[in-house]
Amino acid sequence: MDYLKSVVPSQLVSERGSNLVVINPGSANVRIGLAQQETPFTIPNCIAQYTNGANKAPKKNVQDQMLNSQVTTAQHMEREKAYDIIASLLKIPFLDEEIGNNCFPRKMGRVDGYNPQTNKKDTAFTWTNVYEKNNTSSGLDNMLKDEPLEPQEGNGTKELRLADFKYKEFICGEEALKISPNEPYCLRRPIRRGHFNVSQHYSMQQVFEDIQAIMEWILIEKLHIPLSERNMYSAILVVPDTFDNREIKEMLSIILRDLRFSSAVVHQEGLAAVFGNGLSTACVVNMGAQVTSVICIEDGVALPTTAMTLPFGGEDISRCLLWTQRHHQTWPPIRTDTLTKPIDLLMLNRLRESYCQIKEGELDAVVAVHSYEDGMPAGSHKTRLTALNVPPMGLFYPTLLVPDVYPPPPRSWFSDFEDMLEDTWRSDMSDGLFPGVNSGGLQMWESYPVFTSKPRKEEKIGLADAITNSILSTGRVDLQRKLFCSIQLIGGVALTSGLITTVEERVLHAIPSNEAIDTVEILGILDFGRDAWIHREDWIQNGIHIRSGRKYKDSYFLQAQAMCYINL
Q1: DSSP string across 550-562
Q2: Distance CA 264, CA 69 (A)
Q3: What is the DSSP-derived secondary structure letter of residue 168?
Q4: Which of 33, 114, 275, 494 shows the smallest number of beta carbons within 10 Å?
Q5: What average pLDDT does the chain have?
């Protein structure tokens, strides 16, 4: 006990980091690794399940493809209007303007990609091998041990080889995204747009099972931690700021009950970001693949009323890149479908990361675009892409991005009768066992704002306005000044070249003139509380810390400090 109070966090991580697994689930990727690793594994958060009878129509390659909606005429007109506004700012031709009629002085910029891995960005993906050795096969296994499974010429040869192989039951990670549409698999993403992907096509129980299967596969295949040794490891669960209280609770149950970690500590993503940079107060902007979240942290405590969620991210910029090139007729005449062919979205994400940036003037690049036809080797098409600086500006003009429309999870999903802020919980705490508890609940929570059990509202505004509104909602000038000078961008989209300067400029201009703010600045060790440890049996049975009377299953308490749980 005295050691934990006096130890330096970096020393604790170096001594115990080999047994600490950090897990950060996201909509598109799971970041996971041992605490002592400098760089975690980034694994696509998806699973492809083998489907019997997949050849029967209609065949679904992606579980969510029936939920997608077409872009409406009004959305299309708004998108074109946003493009022209961005074009005037960047001093490039309007969407349907001929080059010769451009009234702005033209600046030309040639971009061949600023990604240092230049030899990787033009490499085509290959289809995933969906077969594995059949355990009932003969000694031919030894002969084929190191040989790839390829169709062979000659009568009966191919049939003989395939008889010794079978379809894999499931495939996780990037390999799941590269499965040919011809194969009998259906891709599922258990987290979508910052929330569990519950829908009429994707049951709640199936979401839980897929999350567990993905995590189990990563722990065994990437971290080499078998289930039998899991009790010697602890987990640090870094939850997204978009998660609802029930989603946090279910994730914790999967970590402790199903994956069998000996203990777990829960951190909010925004808190982990500021702590990791040695800060205590900042406005954290998490720019992920499918959602962008903003939340303010003051003295190590997240302020729930400042939380904002923007329903767009890196994948939307990639789809906008495709729309822009098709409109300018610079995209090759190939069938690129980002909704039903995940491998096409992989290719577009790579192009966006390598070539898109924010700067004035016309921006083009000669790139290799690949086509992935069903079951055929990838085809390469060299072309010149243009207006590469327009898609990332959609962060500030979201009507340009037109996110795919998915229905929100059922309202019943967000009802949690164990929530400490619900009257159903307060009425059970009137037996006098805990100090300060009466029929009205804990006195410390009397002035706490009560929020309804529903998903956080998604804002239909741009990034600069969201940051400004979030900071100004604190209502204190001294805190606002500090936050405007401590904006922290995290997430993959934050690596976009030119984004930092643009955010600083646009946030400064978005501040109302009556606010006394004249400076905006972007700033480029998890702590443990011993009092929060709880036995695994207590969590599974009722989720109550025996001595404190607080329910750790509530997300608003999660936002206030880190929590630890232990299995014995």
Answers
A1: -BTT-HHHHTTS-
A2: 40
A3: -
A4: 114
A5: 78
